User: Which sequence fits this backbone?
């Protein structure tokens, strides 16, 4: 019976369009981009072979290391915030709202589908100081406090960025973790309650260990996304002030398109890809160990 | 947490029988309500401010504190955003780029998922892994060679670069999700179809595709949001301002007027948000399930 499905020609036929587009528009460019790291120049002006100059430049470029550090800082802070707040919300959904909270869950999820640009412009205007005090500053003024120049320093700009990205994604992690929490058998919770566990102790000793697998996949998903952050930074702060909120993705983009430096841009892109690869593998491996233990 | 109070004596009888609310449960209800209120204020508040802002006049914006209500409703802001702000043009560009990409992603992705999961042939494991690897690769890694290629092929100045790139970047997750859905269908279903003498291709179209119809809608929604909200690819390949997608247009919106016109800007953001809200109102359960199922792959 199996033999009819061992049809290589049909398999190839069905696979061909996807494989063709994927190979030509993704796989070939990835390899091609590796080749660019050995060149200097761009599409319009032409290229020159420069050997490993780009890598030497990368090692000595303080801006790249600033962007690299920012990428890691952003990934750690946002991942922690997203997953932690998502988890708190999920516990809230399960134990306080019970199954009746469908409307609340749906409303809280809505910002997830909104375009980053729209959300970023909204937050920009909320925290604006000039030419017009934004919502936050005018509330501060009304309370008798002075306006804060939120986008004037790297620290406060990062704060707004973190607030925005956690705001728009916590509903997502809440629903993701909520479905994981629903998988915990009611009998297990019931017998723990009969043994006298309640509130915080119930969460820490029963719920947390049992929801570890879905917690781990949330972390992996979040890290993988936050390392590649681009849209929200570009639209909210454009990396500023100075390079204060510039991650590797944006630094690569500016190097390549504002300065027309494809060779060096590709080298930064390679660094970014390696970071994603190493971090994903590391999280994945340590997570495997934890879950199996 | 009402079952907790009754837990010691009547634990198995759940839900707890309704009694007259004691002061304690009344307090709990109050805490519960205020927590819900706080959550909704945080999530929905900014969006309400956006909606109100889109109806204020420029004078309103400049003369009164930004938290005040509009003194008169300026529906004209929407017309302004639509025409002077070019939002109509940008929306059209977005649709022209997104719809063909979406159609190709689904057609190619479903066929590939079937070929990789249901059909048995040597090398299907490695090919699936090859697709999976694409989920991790950042967009920055492919932008420069593509820019060069599209430039040389004379595609710059059209929306083709967007359509091609969206199709390719959408495939990895789609192939992976479709393979997962096909894995859940019992093999006997496909075997029964071929028993009647149908070829594998026929079985694919008349049995497999209808069986995963719901999954196709889910995957389509997920990809729609990814592509519609994309900025990186759209920003790179829309060198001509008449080709801007709605996100790129929004980013450059102030430039159309010279100085920030708050009302029209907020109206433009609102148009973008309200369009998605309309889709969300009808399909929210499916969107939530779809987007989160794309994440559980660890």
Assistant:
């Amino acid at each position: 019976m199996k033999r009819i499905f061992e049809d290589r020609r049909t398999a190839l036929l069905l696979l061909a369009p996807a494989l063709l587009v994927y190979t030509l528009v993704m796989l070939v460019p990835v390899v091609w981009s590796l080749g660019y790291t050995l060149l200097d120049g761009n599409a319009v002006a032409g290229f020159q072979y420069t050997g490993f100059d780009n890598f030497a430049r990368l090692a000595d470029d303080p801006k790249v290391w600033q962007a690299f550090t920012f990428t890691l800082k952003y990934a750690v802070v946002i991942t922690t915030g997203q997953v932690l707040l998502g988890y708190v919300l999920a516990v809230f959904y399960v134990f306080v709202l019970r199954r009746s909270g469908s409307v609340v869950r749906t409303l809280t999820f809505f910002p997830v589908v909104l375009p980053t640009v729209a959300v970023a412009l909204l937050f920009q205007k909320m925290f604006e100081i000039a030419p017009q005090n934004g919502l936050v500053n005018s509330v501060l003024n009304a309370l008798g406090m002075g306006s804060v120049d939120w986008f004037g320093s790297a620290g406060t700009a990062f704060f707004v960025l973190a607030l925005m990205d956690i705001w728009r994604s916590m509903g997502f992690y809440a629903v993701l973790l909520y479905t994981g929490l629903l998988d915990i058998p009611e009998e297990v919770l019931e017998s723990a309650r009969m043994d006298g566990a309640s509130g915080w102790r119930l969460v820490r000793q029963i719920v947390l260990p049992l929801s570890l697998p879905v917690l781990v996949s949330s972390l992996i998903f979040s890290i993988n996304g936050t390392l590649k952050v681009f849209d929200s930074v570009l639209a909210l702060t454009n990396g500023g002030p100075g390079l204060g909120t510039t991650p590797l993705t944006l630094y690569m983009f500016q190097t390549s398109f504002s300065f027309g430096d494809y060779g060096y841009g590709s080298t930064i892109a390679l660094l970014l890809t390696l970071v994603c690869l190493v971090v994903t593998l590391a999280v994945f491996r340590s997570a495997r160990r934890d879950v199996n233990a | 947490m009402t079952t907790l109070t009754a837990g010691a004596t009547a634990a198995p009888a759940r839900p707890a029988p309704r009694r007259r609310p004691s002061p304690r449960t009344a307090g709990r209800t109050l805490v519960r309500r205020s927590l819900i209120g706080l959550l909704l204020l945080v999530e929905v508040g900014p969006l309400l401010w956006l909606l109100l802002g889109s109806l204020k006049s420029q004078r309103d914006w400049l003369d009164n504190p930004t938290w005040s209500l509009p003194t008169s409703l300026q529906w004209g802001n929407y017309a302004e955003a639509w025409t002077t702000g070019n939002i109509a043009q940008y929306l059209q560009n977005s649709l022209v780029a997104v719809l063909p990409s979406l159609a190709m992603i689904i057609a190619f992705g479903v066929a590939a998922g079937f070929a990789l999961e249901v059909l048995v042939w040597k090398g299907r494991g490695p090919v699936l892994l090859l697709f999976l690897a694409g989920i991790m690769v950042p967009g920055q890694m492919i932008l420069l060679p593509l820019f060069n290629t599209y430039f040389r092929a004379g595609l710059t100045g059209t929306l083709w670069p967007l359509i091609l790139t969206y199709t390719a970047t959408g495939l990895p997750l789609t192939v992976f999700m479709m393979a997962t859905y096909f894995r859940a269908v019992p093999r006997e279903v496909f075997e029964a179809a071929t028993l009647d003498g149908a070829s594998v291709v026929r079985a694919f179209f008349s049995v497999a595709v209808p069986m995963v119809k719901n999954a196709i809608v889910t995957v389509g929604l997920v990809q729609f949001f990814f592509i519609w909200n994309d900025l990186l690819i759209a920003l790179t390949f829309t060198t001509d301002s008449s080709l801007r997608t709605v996100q790129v247009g929004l980013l450059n919106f102030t430039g159309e007027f010279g100085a920030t016109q708050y009302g029209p800007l907020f109206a433009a953001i609102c148009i973008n948000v309200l369009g998605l809200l309309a889709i969300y109102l009808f399909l929210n359960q499916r969107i939530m399930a779809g987007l989160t199922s794309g994440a559980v792959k660890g």
User: Anything to note?
Assistant: Chain A has a mean pLDDT of 87. Residues 54 and 225 of chain A are 27 Å apart (CA to CA).
